[in-house]
Each structure stands twice: as structure tokens, then as C-alpha cells.
Amino acid sequence: MADDDFTLPSNEWDVLVCGTGVKPSLLAAALSRAGKRVLQVDPNTYYGSDSGAFSVDELETWATTLPPDSPFSHATVERMIEIARPRSYTLTLAPHLVYWSSNLLELLREVEMTSSFSWQAVGSWWVYLTEEDVAARSEAGGGIGGALVDIGVKTVKAGGTVRRKAGGWNKGRKAASVDLSGMPELQPAGSTPTLRKLGGVLREVPSTFEDVAWSPDLQDRDRGYLGGFLRFVTKCSDPTDTKHYTLLKEHADTSLAEFLSTVYPLPPFTIASIHSLTLLPTSPEKTKLRDAVKALTTHMNSTGRIPDIRSAAALTIAYGGSAELCQVWSRGAAVAGGINVLACGVESLTSGDDSKILAKLTTRQTVTADWVLNTTHTPSTTGTSFTLSKGIYIITSSLPSLFAKKFQDDRVSPNAVVLTFPTGSLITEGGEKNNAPVYIIAHSSATGECGHGECVLYTSTAHLQPSGYELSSLALSRALQAVGEEGAQVAFACNYTQSFPTTASETTQSNGPVIALNPLSADLAFDDEALEECKRVYRRIVGEECLHGFLEMTEEMRRQHMLAEGEEEYLN
Amino acid sequence: MAPESEPTIKILLIGPSNSGKTALLLRYVDDIFDMDTATATIGVDFRVKKVAVKGKAYRLLLFDTAGQERFRTLTSSYYRNAQGCILVYDVSNRESFLSMDHWFGECAKYAEPGIVTYLVGSKIDRGGRAVATEEGKALAERYGAGFVEVSSKTRENVRTPFVEVVDRIIETPELMDPKLTRKRRENAVALDHGVDDDTAGASCVC
């Protein structure tokens, strides 16, 4: 009866879920709601596993001890200045962006769970490019063809639409067609959307046709090719669009850099800015076109679709991004009758009678379960892994210019932005240039992750530590300089290294009752595949014939909700 | 959830297992007393109650722990944007009273600063009192919380904690519209308005 009576209410469970990360938590909630008796355990003392969120004090403890058997290593932590309320932060290991077109939003809408979260908009993407970067153009840029496209874009800017074939100045490759007929109607002059610039070096990335048409950095021939490329991205997945579909097929394994310097010949600085929209860790030279197109398609399918903020393409979940998902879903499992136990790991799993699994818990209890969901932290022995250098920085300024509204008619301001430092744009004191882009995801205090008048910057780069950390800090100080806030300081910094499997294996579908879930992908945006994997596992456990939809409320919950809401109607 | 025609007040119940949180909630909201309240926790984690204070209507959202307190695994997300927190112990169980420091600590750690707290000693209908009224009062004073002893079984004082918490919240303008919460709410992106809904869910075509 005492509150520290930690005896489990039962030793027999339908499903034992190990871990409280995104996938285990989602499955715990979905399976509980489907009527399964779910026991969810986590050896850590906090929710979220690899996607946890912490106060400053907790993050310091986490970084100095690092959970065993985790993908984390080389953590460093430093308080530069005194932090007044170290417990009031929610610093996350998983500040994922959620694209408007993602299947996560689709799912949460279906199961009426969107209001369990506070959604903040991710505003513009900014890319760090100096005047010299923009001035550096490839030699190919001259010639007759360029001049022809020039005329074409000028026509567009005058308000008309044009269909024009590019000339032969991209010699050697098949001529790419520049087709601007799909351009949305351009805004009349006067309310022309301009791409903003901060400190002369952080440039807003053009991601719509309007942006392309009006970018001050682009020459008119670039506009034609960039417009053509954006059109290619929107069309190339459609098999009936033979031209673009074939073009993608032929070049799927070509690097984005090569494709964009030959088929749609664009200057390097534009390639860097297009690449930043992919959020991919690899440099444009090492990014395959198929991967870039997939990421860009997601981006473009989302751009301009958010009613509250047309200038945005993605959202972020307040209070820690995916860490908050873990908490809400774990609680969802409890609400539906499941049990969450922290500081409790699984010591051993053995086969018992009746094909049940016997699980010995670190709390010295033994439970049985029909199914066990495990998370593999360590990349599979056969698969290869790669690592990212990550950083979490608290800044003593709210950096208002970063979070300013782009369009007057946007109802809300963005509370997150993405800054990209392209490959080669940074150099360490030892003379080492970054061999991969450095991304900064900046969160304002409206995300609830820091105090008023502060913001949190999350960095990520494939450049390995120790120089990866140095480059991240360098990117950070360049960003602060560019944003030009007097007295903006780094109050706290934490750097760590996280390893990921290179390719998500399909082998979650192990045959036995012990199912190993893949770790979350390294993507900076919430990975659509995470939900697909959970749905596959769910179907396997509840059976194909089960009519109960994934994560849908049970009849009893629905009835209770009606009662709760009905009370209100009655009083009305 | 329902459209917000009147101001919503979010109040949490916390405290150890079996301290009588759900019984108090159900007695207050539905005027029922069920010996087997554990089952009542399953399925829904909140209750809605409309109240009128000085002629003005408010919508109370009362959140229950969903049993997560049992292993002290309440998610910090539970505390988000709550304006009031009712901490419940069982007067016939000394240990439940001794754990109150832990629960006040949790509340201070995860809730917004300035949250209204209220300490409730429950089950006064039971024999074998293990915590004196004065002890409860002293603890509440130490944390600047309100205090009352109740019996959900006999209905004694069950309305008091809710009424007083609501009063104190309404008297505190920052709580009714905390600056930060307001900013957060105004800046939050609405996901559910109609216009784009049919198309918005369309997934990536590749």
C-alpha cells in the first residue's frame, strides 16, 4: 500500500516492451489501446531512451555517465556562465522536425492526438554563404543558352508564364528542359517576397518558385535551371511523366552535386543551398540523387501547406521534439491500462512453456510475456554504422531576427529555424575544413525548452569529433555574429557522438516472439519509416484480422471521453 | 476536444498510489464513490467539469495520474500548462504523508512556476488515523499550499480543494494567462482546421 511498493500488479503480460524511445512508446500505447496487457520497462531513470530530454543538471549527469549499451560516446559538457534555473530546461537529444506531409501528423490526426502536443513552426532554412561563395560561378555559366533562359525568366517576372528549352550550354549532357509553366502565380510587384539575408552571410534558401524568381543572388539563367530542377523534383516520382521519371531513374545513383552541375547546371552556392533542404548529413558530392529527391519531395510537398504559416514546411513539437512523443505515448499506454516502470531493465530472456517468454528483470522479478519488443542500440554486427557529432547549446539571447515572420499574413511566427553551414565553409584552427555540412536547428523559448530571452541551438554534422565539435562551435559563433545580437553568449554547451546504422534493416521481422526494433534513423526530420515499422510489428502482434486501428482509442476510452465531454454538454 | 468557449483551467492530481486521488475526483465530478476506483482510472485520464465563479463560467480540466505514480514514473509532460495541483495523501497511512515532500518536489520541478498547490488529507472516515491534522496543516504552510482533510466516502469537504484552487487561480492574473503560456499558445500552429485537412495528410509520393 505504501507508495514505494514496487511490486508489479501481475507477472503475466501479453507484451513486454523494453525501452521508452519513440518506437517502443508508440507500440506500447497502440498495443494497450488494442486491449493487450502491456508492461513497458526502461533501464534508464528517464523516459525517451535515445530520444530523451533533460534539464541542464540531468544532461550533465547523462553526459558524464552515458547509459551503457547506448549509441552515445565522447560526451563533453560545459557551463560557460551561471545558469539561474538549471532545472527549468528541456534539452532534447531528438529535436526532430515534423514535415507537414509526414505520416506522423496523418496518424495523430486520425487518432485525435494532435492536441496532446504544442506544435511550433519551423520557419525558413538559412544557408551560410559569403559574397565570395555567391560570386564563384562555374565557367559553364556563359554562352548563348544562358542568354536565352535569361529572356525566359524575364518574361516570367513580367507576369507571364513561359515554356522554354534550354540551349546547349550544358555541353556533354542531354539538354535539360526548363519548364516554368508550373510556377504559381507570382505576387504583384510591391509585395514581392524577398529572400532575406542576415549579417550578409546567412541567406534564406529559395524553396518555392516565387523564391527562385526573385532571389537577388541568382542570375536569370540560374533561375531557369533552378525552377526546372524544382519542377523535376515534383514530377520525377510520377511514372506517367516519362521525361522526369526517366531522368531520375538514369541518375538515381549520381551525386546531387554532379547532377546539379551538369543536367541542371547551377553554380556551387546554389547546389549547397538546395542540398541544405535535404537535411542529409552527407556533402552534395556524396549525396545520391535518389536520396536527395526523396528528402526534397517531402520538403516541397509540405511547403506552403500550413494554414497558419504559409512560409513554413515543417513543425516541431514543443518540450523536446520526439522526447515529448515518447512521454505522451508512454503515458497513453498507462492510460489504456499498461504499466510503465523506469530504472528496470531486462537481465535475460528465455523460452518458457506454451511458447511464452520468460523475462528476468533487473528488479529481480520474473515475468512472462507472449511477445517481447526489444530495441537494438548497437548497430547490427553485419551492418555498417556511421556517426554524427551532435551539440546542444543554450544561448543568452532570444535572437529575434532569426524567428521573425516572413510574410505579414502568417498568423504565427516560427519558433524554430534551420541553419546550414555547407561543406568547406568552416575551418578549424588546425586548418581542417568541414567535410560535411553542419546543421543548426535553433529553437526559441516558445518551445518550452529554455527560459524567456534565451534560445537553444542543436547542431549536427557527420564531421567526426574532435574537429566535428570544434566546427560545430565555430558554426555557432558565426551564426551568432551574423544574427548580430549584442551580448549573445553561449551559456552552456554539450557535445556528444551518436552512431546510427547505415541502412535500416528490414529484419525487425524476426520470426520468434522476440522482436528487435531498429533504432531511429539519423534523419533530422521525423522518419516516416519509424511509423511504418511500428505498424508492421503491431499487425504481427494483434493479427491481420484485427479491426482495431493502429493507436485508435478503445470503445471504453471513447465512451469515457464521451462521458467526460457529455458532462460539459449537460452543463451547457 | 471541445471548443474553448470559456476559459479552461487545468488542475492535476498527484500523490502516492492508493491515496484516494481518483476517488476524490470521481466524487467531485460525478458524485460517485466506487470502492474499486482502480478500474475507473483506465481508459481516460481527465474529467471535465464546468463551474461558475462569480457568475463567470470556467471549464475545469482535471487530470488523473493514470496509475503512473505507482512506480514514480509520472511523465513530466503530465505537468504541462497546469495552473493548479492537488496533492493527496491518506491520513490513515503515514508513509503516504511522508512521501509528500517528494510530490511537492516533483511539482516544483516540472510545473510552471507559480502553480497553485493544495494539500489534501483523504480518507478521514477511516479509523486508525496515522497523520494528525496539525501535521498536514504545517506541511502545507511550509510549501505555501492550501490544506483540507476530506472523505470521498462521506462527501465531507470534497468540493473544498477544487473550489479553493479555482478561486486562487482566478485571482492570479498571470496564472489565468501566464505570459509565456500565452505566447506559446498564440504562436502554436493549429493542426486541425479544415482547409488543408483532406490534402495535408497526403504522404510523400516517393
From TrEMBL, chain A:
For this chain, one GO molecular function annotation is: GDP-dissociation inhibitor activity
An example of a Pfam family matching this protein is GDI
A Gene Ontology biological process in which this protein takes part is: vesicle-mediated transport
**What GO cellular-component annotations does this UniProt entry give?**
cytosol; nucleus; Rab-protein geranylgeranyltransferase complex
Q: Which InterPro entries match?
A: FAD/NAD-bd_sf (IPR036188), GDP_dissociation_inhibitor (IPR018203)
According to its UniProt record, which protein family does this protein belong to? Belongs to the Rab GDI family.
PANTHER family reported in the protein's UniProt record: CHM, RAB ESCORT PROTEIN 1, RAB GDP-DISSOCIATION INHIBITOR
The protein's name is Rab proteins geranylgeranyltransferase
Give the organism, scientific name.
Sphaerosporella brunnea
From TrEMBL, chain B:
The record, for SUPFAM superfamilies, names: P-loop containing nucleoside triphosphate hydrolases
Question: Is the ATP-binding keyword given for this protein?
Answer: no
Q: What domain of life is recorded for the organism?
A: Eukaryota
- Entry GO MF terms: GTP binding; GTPase activity
InterPro entries per record: P-loop_NTPase (IPR027417), Rab (IPR050227), Small_GTP-bd (IPR005225), Small_GTPase (IPR001806)
In terms of SMART domains, this protein maps to: RAB (SM00175), RAN (SM00176), RAS (SM00173), RHO (SM00174)
What Pfam families does the record tag this protein with? Ras
Tell me which UniProt keywords the record has, alphabetically: GTP-binding, Hydrolase, Nucleotide-binding
Q: What is this protein called?
A: P-loop containing nucleoside triphosphate hydrolase protein
